[in-house]
Amino acid sequence: MIPIFKQFAERVTSLRQNEFSRATWNLTAYYIGGVFLLLTISSVIILLLVPPDISRLSEHLLQNEGGATSTHQEFSVYELNEHLFEVLIIVNTSILIIFMMSAYFFARKTLSPIEEMQKKQTQFMGDTAHELRTPLTVLKSGSESILRQSHTPDEYILFIRESLEEIERMNKLTDELLFLLQQEHSSISKTFIETNISTLLTHEIEKFIPYAHERHVTVSHTIEQNMLAQIIPDDCIRLFKNLLKNAVDYNVPNGTITVTAHSSNNHIVCTVADTGIGIASSEIKHIFDRFYKVNTARTHTKHGGTGLGLAIVYEIVKNHSGSITVESTLGSGSAFVIHIPLHQ
Ligand code: ADP
């Protein structure tokens, strides 16, 4: 993240932290107030209900024994009532003190998932703004410099071409953001359709071969025939496209991509392996994070990707109740393995 966005995100985070700290204390006070009220009500009920019972019990005992005086009886009842009152005060005060000590902890526990979500949202907003700012800056500075002096028709064409590339980049970013947003809101339900995944995958690989050849990368595939699965076809196409594109973009000249797919234990197991630059083991745990990019300097793509491709892959696999794993060796290549159940 560039400094200005980092500063902004840190400032927003610190403001939110203050708000959360205030909210935690408020919630602690509400919790303590609530427990105090409950203890008071229960004590009043006990004090209203129990003394008449004590009197009745005492009367009953005296009638059976037939000996003690009425002063003695009143004294015993009075003593018992007082003892009950003292016990209630001690028990309630102890409960209240213990609860006061733990209430802050409960309040923090209640609010921490919301705080975590807010932090992620702030980070996400900062990253999105940063990603949009880069093409906008290129467009602005390019337009300003082209207006400053006259140019040849070829220079204008070049400028328009570069501007279109930046616009395309913003288009891709907004499209990916909208897709991720859609995935998060499960209420926008999508239809699972029984699909011949072997045909779908073969078709996608064949469409991809010219893109790979342009970058001197060879693609080979071994797909088990007629594998039928309940899937969301458009989402699975997107998933394979993202994996195949990465396998090309992060490959080396004269590299290869091998795609295999077979059914096993009621699952489709699909592997997209490449002989590309590979991913360091310390980076692997982050690559499915939104906007995470390892090293764009070594890729074929001019500006690198958006860092959302694998986050989308992860969401699609999750929506299909599947799983995805990565095996990679820096400098040798990577293999992404997907397991998707045949029946949802
Ligand atoms: P991007 O749009 O940058 O490609 P992705 O989410 O698809 O974003 O990938 C995240 C990062 O993971 C990439 O920046 C890249 O560094 C790394 N990566 C993804 N696929 C591969 C691969 N097949 N080989 C090496 N690195 C990869």
Tags for this model:
five-stranded mixed sheet; about 65% helix; Heat Shock Protein 90; about 350 residues; binds adenosine-5'-diphosphate; Helix Hairpins; two-stranded antiparallel ribbon; alpha+beta
Number of discrete domains: 3
Helix content: 55-70%
- Class of the largest domain, according to the CATH hierarchy? Alpha Beta
Mean model confidence by pLDDT? 86
> Would you identify the CATH H-level superfamily of the largest domain?
Histidine kinase-like ATPase, C-terminal domain
Give the CATH architecture of the largest domain. Answer: 2-Layer Sandwich
Q: How many strand units?
A: 7
* Strand residue content: 5-15%
Shape: elongated
**Continuous helix count:** 7
Structural category: alpha+beta
Taking all Cα atoms into account, the compactness measure Rg is 34 Å
Strand order, biggest sheet? Answer: 2-4-5-7-6
Q: Largest sheet at a glance?
A: 5 strands, mixed
Indicate the low-confidence ranges by residue numbers.
Answer: none
- N- to C-terminal distance: 39 Å
Report the CATH topology name of the largest domain: Heat Shock Protein 90
Structure summary:
By secondary structure, the protein is of the alpha+beta class. Helices cover 65% and strands 14% of the residues.
Characterise the protein shown here.
- The strands form two sheets. The chain has a five-stranded mixed β-sheet, with helices on one face. It has a two-stranded antiparallel ribbon with strand order 1-3.
- The protein has three domains: 2-124; 129-184, Helix Hairpins, CATH 1.10.287; 193-341, Histidine kinase-like ATPase, C-terminal domain (Heat Shock Protein 90).
- α3 (153-184) runs parallel beside α7, α4 (197-214) runs parallel beside α5 and α5 runs antiparallel to α7 (309-319).
- The chain has helices spanning 3-65, 70-148, 153-184, 197-214, 233-249, 281-284, 309-319; strands spanning 193-196, 218-223, 228-231, 256-264, 267-274, 323-329, 333-341.
- It is elongated and about 115 Å long.
- With 344 residues, it is α+β, with helices and mostly antiparallel strands.
- The chain is built from seven helices and seven strands, in the order αααβαββαββααββ.
- Bound molecules: adenosine-5'-diphosphate.
- Adenosine-5'-diphosphate (ADP) binds next to α5 and α7.
